[in-house]
TrEMBL record:
One of its GO terms (cellular component) is cytosol. Its cofactor is Mn(2+); Mg(2+). It comes from the Bacteria. InterPro entries: IsoCit/isopropylmalate_DH_CS, IsoPropMal-DH-like_dom, Isopropylmalate_DH. Catalyzes the oxidation of 3-carboxy-2-hydroxy-4-methylpentanoate (3-isopropylmalate) to 3-carboxy-4-methyl-2-oxopentanoate. The product decarboxylates to 4-methyl-2 oxopentanoate. One of its GO terms (molecular function) is NAD binding. It is an enzyme of class 1 (oxidoreductase). This is 3-isopropylmalate dehydrogenase. The record marks 141, 191 as: Important for catalysis. SUPFAM superfamilies: Isocitrate/Isopropylmalate dehydrogenase-like. Binds 1 Mg(2+) or Mn(2+) ion per subunit. Homodimer.
Length: 355
């Protein structure tokens, strides 16, 4: 049976990193008995140029019918002046919403090879292996809001945070399932000393995790978590948290590794999963063949793991990446004297050869 993958290169370096990644995804899948069929679709700025809209219906329909979507990045200065509802970034928000992608998974791993690039001491970050599970379709980003309005001469605005029990339950389940294949530790992050939504979150997390006896759940306030992430990042295994807290903590955790070009992500729902590197379209280096493709290549590994159940194929890609880095090959973003500097396509070729 052929598995359908929708590929959205997008804008800027998106095309280069996707082109570099596809042969690796194809080979890893094939080696493990999977036959992939790709459909390339437009979204973001490229779709605005072609169709006058960031997320064409054809792209959405193809994504809905696919097993998974692999996305490069969208956006760039060329489209900065278009109307807000037509911005390229609407494509990502639209895909998340339409595909019901409520769980955002961001692994943050620091091997001895990338530890020297971290802003923290190598001994603090070497060996970090955290999976952050962020709720993606609820909370304050989706609650009722009031833009600045004047009431009795005073201008006010508000945003409402709402979480329902089923919303918390399903995201905590994702975290617990992920922890089962890891160290079995889930830290649920909230602000239950202040917020009602967080108290419901904490209660629901406790009840949900009770269904996973082999998983150890603990709770942490978000301010403490922000501190612990830089003090003792190795103490974490899986972190599960709300949309807003997750937005902030994932960026904080990402810089532990010192390179935005290395990190993958997965967004999961009931159906099609979406996989993309955490960085944007990097217009400053687009078209030069120097972008680091590893974040996208590791996103392809997540695709194999979470959408196709091909854990061995995912691990094969992750091991190949690690082996090439161990051999001293670096893209420009991680280059240091003594290493071998390679282009986007050369890095991908080396990883492909290791598979
Ligand atoms: P960015 O992540 O594109 O770039 C930030 C810095 O990191 C730049 O100096 C860039 O050259 C560098 N960088 C990023 N990825 C790299 C890679 N793979 N290899 C080497 N260096 C890399 O963020 P920025 O500049 O804030 O945004 C640029 C555009 O991307 C904007 O239009 C923004 O809206 C969009 N964007 C799209 C995202 C997506 O599609 N999911 C996510 C974030 C931003
Ligand atoms: Mg963010």
């Amino acid at each position: 049976m052929q598995r359908r993958i929708v590929v959205i290169p997008g804008d800027g370096i998106g095309k280069e990193i996707i082109e570099a990644t596809l042969p690796i995804l194809t080979k890893a899948a094939k080696t493990h008995g999977l036959n992939l069929g790709y459909t390339t679709c437009l979204a973001g700025g490229a779709a605005i140029d072609a169709y006058g809209e960031p997320l064409p219906q054809a792209t959405l329909d193809a994504a809905r019918q696919a097993d998974a979507v692999l996305l490069g990045a969208v956006g760039g200065p060329k489209w900065d002046s278009v109307r807000p509802e037509l911005r390229p970034e609407k494509a990502i928000l639209g895909l998340r919403k339409e595909l019901g992608l409520f769980a955002n998974l961001r692994p943050v791993k620091v091997s001895p090879i990338i530890a020297p690039y971290s802003s923290l001491k190598p001994e603090v970050v070497t060996g970090v292996d955290i999976l952050i599970v962020r709720e993606l379709t609820g909370g304050v980003y989706f609650g009722q809001r009031q833009e600045a309005a004047e009431v009795d001469g005073i201008v006010s605005a508000w945003d409402m945070e709402v979480y329902s029990q089923p919303e918390v339950e399903r995201i905590v389940k994702v975290a617990c399932q992920a922890a089962q294949g890891r160290k079995g530790k889930v830290t649920s992050v909230d602000k239950a000393n202040v917020l009602a939504t967080s108290r419901l979150w904490r209660k629901t997390a406790t009840e949900t995790a009770a269904g996973f006896p082999e998983v150890a759940l603990s709770h942490m306030y978000v301010d403490n978590c922000a501190m612990q992430l830089v003090l003792a990042p190795k103490s974490f295994d899986v972190i599960v948290t709300s949309n807003l807290f997750g937005d902030i903590l994932t960026d904080e955790a990402a810089v532990l590794t010192g390179s935005i070009g290395m990190l993958p992500s997965a967004s999961l729902g009931q159906g099609t999963g979406l996989y993309e590197p955490i960085h944007g379209s990097a217009p400053d280096i687009a078209g030069q063949g120097i972008a680091n493709p590893v974040g996208t290549i590791l996103s392809a590994a997540m695709l194999l793991r979470y959408s196709l159940g091909a854990d061995a194929a995912a691990e094969a890609i992750e091991n190949a990446v690690q082996a090439v880095l161990e051999d001293g090959y670096r893209n420009a973003d991680l280059y240091r004297p003594g290493m071998t500097k390679v282009s986007t396509s050369e890095m991908a070729g080396l990883i492909l050869a290791k598979l």
